[in-house]
Design goal:
The chain is an alpha/beta fold. It has two domains: about 5-190, Rossmann fold; about 195-240 and about 280-340, no CATH class. It contains 15 helices and nine strands. A nine-stranded mixed sheet has the order 1-9-8-7-6-5-2-3-4, with helices on both faces. Helix 1 packs parallel to helix 6 (about 140-150) and helix 8 (about 195-225) crosses helix 12 (about 285-300). The protein binds NADPH dihydro-nicotinamide-adenine-dinucleotide phosphate (NDP).
């Protein structure tokens, strides 16, 4: 295994993008935050690069104009740009790429993604004479902006798929700095497009489902034991205690933060986790791990990507049905009622 490469603010030189025009394509979650951050970086560093927006003509277009940006149809923005930040949803990207972006990918241009998805699954195959890079914030769009404004920064993955210019890594680092990722000396870790895709999707398709299933089970067993549903929900996530615990895990580490809990809690958490990991009690760790491995296999062999492309093509029917099912489940209905009552 090769050594992991870390980069910090000191490793980045913005002059590599001097004189360049960056087009942010898609003024959504990531697009808006990244565009605002780039504009502030230009102001704060007296940078001589430029940011423009490419979007379809709808309310996001208007929002970008109101935020003071020059906004163009996607194709026009890509024509004007030296660096194209493709920040539209992964399942939409191939079609937009084919119709609006591809024809403008002339020699020397840079195509930058925030997710490895379209390249990993070969939905997009850019010409060989352009740089293809990834700058993937490990944060949602809202936090990308908030972390910039607070000066905290946010970690990102960076990757290079094609290095036509011989400068692709340096350009990726400069984009990461321009979007505010290296503020507060926040870290950039170099991965491959395929690694970013697998790790990201596996968090969503294995980790999140296991957590959500455990959440539902805990709620149901609490309620079956006569605990008021509202109290059960407060104990679960509505008090925000777990959110604080996760924050401390990120800051101190999973085990190092444990002493901040009562000793009863520390003992309960460690003994029961140990039993699962030692396969002494069901669901055995080997069963949990097998679930994770199965999802990894389906991601790697393209099964999930085909499933998701079909879902997009058929109007997100399953996604809509599942939203309806979960929103109408007893636990979520009670959760929404409880939230209203908590606000007084
Ligand atoms: P959003 O759904 O917020 O962005 C949507 C943008 O894409 C909007 O500007 C929207 O324009 C545009 N868009 C949607 N459909 C079309 C279409 N058919 N034609 C042209 N434009 C379209 O996406 P995110 O910001 O969440 O994600 C963008 C990228 O960032 C993805 O690759 C994602 O994987 C990655 N990423 C996202 C993170 C997150 O937390 N959200 C975290 C890290 C990476 P309009 O609404 O005006 O139609």
């Amino acid at each position: 295994m090769t050594e992991t490469k870390f980069y910090y603010d000191k490793d980045v030189d913005l002059s590599i993008i001097s004189g360049k025009t960056i087009a942010v394509i898609g003024y959504g979650n990531q697009g808006r935050s990244q565009a605002l951050n780039i504009r502030d970086t230009i102001r704060d560093t007296k940078g001589d690069f430029k940011v423009i927006i490419g979007n379809i003509k709808d309310e996001y277009w208007e929002r970008a104009r109101k935020d003071g940006f020059d906004v163009y149809p996607i194709s026009e923005a890509c024509k004007m740009a030296d660096i194209i930040l493709s920040l539209i949803p992964d399942e939409i990207m191939p079609e937009v790429y084919e119709k609006e972006i591809e024809q403008h990918l002339k020699k020397g241009k840079v195509l930058c993604f925030a997710s490895g998805y379209s390249i990993t699954f070969h939905f997009i195959e850019p010409p060989k004479n352009v740089d293809v890079i990834l700058v993937g914030p490990r944060m949602g769009g809202k936090e990308v902006r908030e972390s910039y404004v607070s000066g905290k920064g946010f970690p990102s993955f960076i990757a290079v798929k094609q290095d036509a210019s011989g400068k692709a890594l340096k350009i990726a680092l400069a984009i990461a700095k321009a979007i505010g990722s290296t503020k507060g000396n926040s870290v950039l870790i170099e991965v491959t497009f395929e690694q970013e895709t697998l790790s990201d999707l596996l968090s969503e398709q294995a980790l999140a489902p296991l957590i959500m299933a455990a959440w539902v089970a805990k709620y149901e067993v609490d309620v079956e034991n006569g605990i008021p549903p509202e109290a059960a929900l407060l104990e679960l996530h509505l008090s925000g205690e777990w959110a604080e615990d996760f924050k401390r895990m990120a800051e101190m580490g999973i085990i190092k933060q444990l002493p901040l809990h009562s000793r009863t809690s520390q003992y309960g958490q460690l003994t029961r986790t140990n039993r699962l990991l030692n396969n002494e009690e069901e669901p055995y760790y080997k069963q949990i791990k097998a679930f994770v491995q199965r999802q990894a296999e389906k991601i790697k062999n393209g099964e999930f990507a085909r499933e998701w492309a079909l879902e997009e093509a058929t109007g997100y029917v399953t996604l809509k049905k599942l939203y309806e099912k979960f929103e109408n489940s007893p636990m979520i209905k009670k959760e929404q009622e409880t939230l209203k009552r908590l606000r007084g």
